[in-house]
Please model this.
Amino acid sequence: MFLEMESISKSFPGVKALDNVALRAGRGEIHAVVGENGAGKSTLMNILAGALQKDSGVIRIDGREVDIPDTLAARTLGIGVIYQNLNMIPDLNVFENLHLSEFRTRGGRLDKRAMADAARERLRDLGADVDPNARLGSLSIADRQMVAIARAITPETRILIMDEPTSTLTPREVESFFAVVRGLKERGVSLIFISHHLEEVFSITERVTVLRDGRLVGDWDTAAMTEEQLVAAMAGRPVVELFPKVEVPPGAVAMEVRGLSSPGRFSDVGFTVRAGEILGIGGLVGAGRTEILKTIFGELPKSGGEIRIGGRPTVIDSPKRAVELGLSYIPEDRAGEGLIVSANLIDNIMLPRLRRFLRGGRLDSRALRRESVRLSDRLGVKAAGVDVKAANLSGGNQQKVAVAKWFGTEPRVLLLDEPTRGIDVGAKAEIYKLLGEMAGQGVAIVMVSSELPELLAISDRIVVICRGRKAAEFDRAGATAESVMLAATGGGGK
Amino acid sequence: MSGSGRTAGKSPAWRKASALLGLIGLCAIMSIVSDKFLSANNLMNILSQIAVVSIVAAGMTFVILTGGIDLSVGSVIGLAGVLSGHAMRQVGNIPLAVAVCVLSGLIMGVINGYLIAYQKLPAFVATLGMMSVARSICFIITQGKPISIFPREFRFFGAGYLSDLIGDVPVVGATPVIILEIAIVFAVAWFLLAQRPFGRYIYSIGSNENATRLAGIDTDFHKLSAYAICGLLTGFAGLLFMGRINSAHPTGGVSYEMNAIAAVVIGGTSLAGGSGSIGGTLIGALIMGVISNGLNLLNVDSYWQGVVLGVAIILAVLVDIKSKRQNA
Model:
């Protein structure tokens, strides 16, 4: 085996993150590492990348035992990493980002031309057509991905670690990304691929290692596994239903949006959603769906249109007003907008309702604790108590905390943006169940999702947005993956 | 939002304890090397010395917890005093002059808060501008000359004794009123920060303003409030300052912003916002007071005070960073 990680253990205060885990990958092998959030995938990869130190265990590359005390050592050993959030600097241009750890100088000055030429060549090698002088922030996510790969790959690279590399790419971009990955494989690079997208695991990887709760479940030839077997290995139990859907008879119209416009973002968008209904909003990343939700919620200004809540016209000029009217919003970016990750669960869950917990002019901290315990139990948040910081929870549990925050406010309308992004299979099913329960209690749900299977399985109706306009609307029976995709790419619809 | 009383996370509680241990250690050392240190007289003296800076630092704590900064407080002490002293001279009405001092501080704080919260100016820039403008107006009004000698009643808040209120009760009567004022200011600030929703919002804004706004909280209003409270307390501190030195001086309060920020930081509040406590700020101010008092008692050249204070600030934050890394 080219890469062997044997008996790796790693503890953090209070948590055993890895317990005697192994990973073995051959030269030029595309190897998936899968597991639910908190299984230890990232910790294992960080140890290989030199970002974390193992407590015990052995790492061998090409038969030789190696020591990886820091990220520079990893690079010297030919180990490259592409992080999920890309870790690049948007205000610098492409070649500067590429040479960040190794700026070239000539006569004491930055040799910009040499760096730009080298950058162009490295990008061309990957088959990417990116201007090395462009500001990184001006590039599409897919192009930034290419820059990240170009940066991670040097002629010496023998192992490339990719953490959820496709999570922000469109299907077409994923295809060209895979072409690059296969090219690297041809060059003999071993690729370690962390992904939640099982269909990608099956389409591109040769071997798969499954981790659960910091332990090794096993490793197999990918082709020898079925999707059900893999999910069962990850979850430790067969997941009966990937998309539990609760049928709720729709009630009265809870929210009606008419001709909503915001210059440069979207225009003339309209839809209605009834109590107990889940309205899916499909479309490509960047089509304006997030902006529509944020405009409804009063976070972005609207230039025209009307929002009726319970039949009454409203003026929503701030999130505060939106919450007063019974709206709630769970953003896609959990750490940046959805939660205060440095705060504990009580503070996060109770934030919208603090004023209702005053007793004698003071916050009743016992009642706050009781209520947050009740909600986190009710929603199945797995945490070592409500005093734990949100940052220490897995993505799935963080999302449950975000739902808990609004669950208690008994909203009329719940706006959700990519509710299961970066969440493992088991937690996804639990989130869908919760949404079903809320719908059952008469909440109208508007859910933006880029995952077609989820959109098709969970929504009662689907509105598709394409380039800031409503492209199509389907009822549950009439929506297919093809019809939604076609509308999303501007190819058809009504 | 950790550090807010009962729901405090691990590291800020530890930090508060470390500042408190620092203070106790400092006092222990001082009481050994100087027999004057522990006398009631000297301890009251320390409290009187830190009164102005600790009350400004209490206001500054609100601002820094939101992730902001207020560089204008030194100039606001000066201008509030000058305006009030001017009113005292021109009108001679004590309640009016007191109101002018406190309200002018409040107004300057509201202007800062409006520019920062609603016009989205960086706090550093807005308050740097206010710092310059307010100081300049001090000189315009006074033409550089101090306004001095005020009636005793006007100086009450800064230089009075409890005996002025309750008559000559033994021991208690000899307590400077300024100590009572520190106690009231910190008690009210603690109540607001640790017991009211307002405090939770302040901590939340400092931790993650976007998430707080998207939870339906009026973050702009609460940010403005933090600067308004800071301005109000600074105006009040200006009144004490004027009473203590018996003069409204155009350079009054120069460099107090640095001392106030130092007290907050030594007390364990993070300049990044979102974590810290008002109790820590009081401890921070006391540490600064004990250091300066100790150097005096030991007859150390006063030019050395800045060196010791600077080292104390750096040490305090260094301990903070180390402890956070261990907890991470």
Chain B touches chain A through 29 residues (CB under 8 Å). The longest strand of chain B covers residues 147-148.
